[in-house]
Amino acid sequence: KEGSHRQRTQSKAMASKAAATLLRRGGKHFFTRYWAAKTKSSSAASFAPSLSSFVPNPAGTGAKSYLGSSRLMSSDVTNGRFMAYSMLYHDSVAFLVSNQLGIPVFMASEPKTPADVAKEFNLSVRAASALLVTLCRMDVVKVVKDSDDSVDDIVYGLTPSAQTFLSNRKDLACVSPFVDTFTTNFITPEALLECSLPADEKKDIMSEHLEQDDETVANNARHFMAHMNAQSYCCAKALPKALGLDSVNEPKTLLDVGGGSAIYSIEAIQSNPNMNGIVFELPAIKPITEEYIEKAGLSDRVSVSPGDFFNDPLPAADYVLFSNIFHDWPDSINANLIQKAYDCLNPGGKIVISEILLADDVKSSTPAATSMNVIMLPYTKGRQYRPKELFRRLQKVGFTKPQVINLVDDYDLVVGTKA
Question: Could you tell me the sign of the dihedral formed by the alpha carbons of 164, 168, 171, 177, in that order?
Answer without folding.
Answer: positive
